[in-house]
Design goal:
Elements: E1 5-10, E2 13-18, E3 35-37, H1 45-55, E4 61-64, E5 67-72, E6 75-78, H2 81-88, E7 93-97, E8 111-113, H3 118-124, H4 128-131, E9 135-136, E10 139-141, E11 145-149, E12 152-156, E13 159-161, E14 166-168
Parallel strand pairs: 3-7, 4-9, 10-14
Antiparallel strand pairs: 1-2, 4-5, 5-6, 7-8, 11-12, 13-14
Helix pairs in contact: 2-3
Length: about 170
Amino acid sequence: MNPDTIHAESNETIQEVPVEALPVTGIPDTDNRPWVELPRDGRLTIDFARALGACMRSAAIFLQDGVPIIVRGQKVEQVDADGLRVILEKFVRPFKWSKGSKKADDPPPYEILSTMSKGTASCLLRSPEFLDCLRPLRILSTIPLPIFRDGALVLQGVGYDSATQLLVIES
């Protein structure tokens, strides 16, 4: 065994992971959610809104009549600031930088997972840069509906159709 490796158990198998490949927590990073830096001095909320919006294009949050919504079961719920803070963490890893120090032996700044503030979430809910990235929703249905596609009438199955802004969910 190489002394420069740490063993991590995963699905009843042992994997050798080089120490330099480990994040600060010492756990191998197998999470595919993108890292998105939270607003701070030197990073504007509008830049955060653009970066986050780009990550949310296929998320389960929609825009209906200018209002962000999610579908729970067969109901539509408006997303408020508290809800947005939790929903987004399913799709991205918001982070802030650790405080650096001027001491030579201190580690350099590194990413720290952090929940966005309620104030930032409220700003996002009014930000065109974020809202314009959400998929528009005109119709929610529990049964397939007929739509025109390529000059033919077809039934829209379960899923979202961007051309008609129709979402069919299982009943």
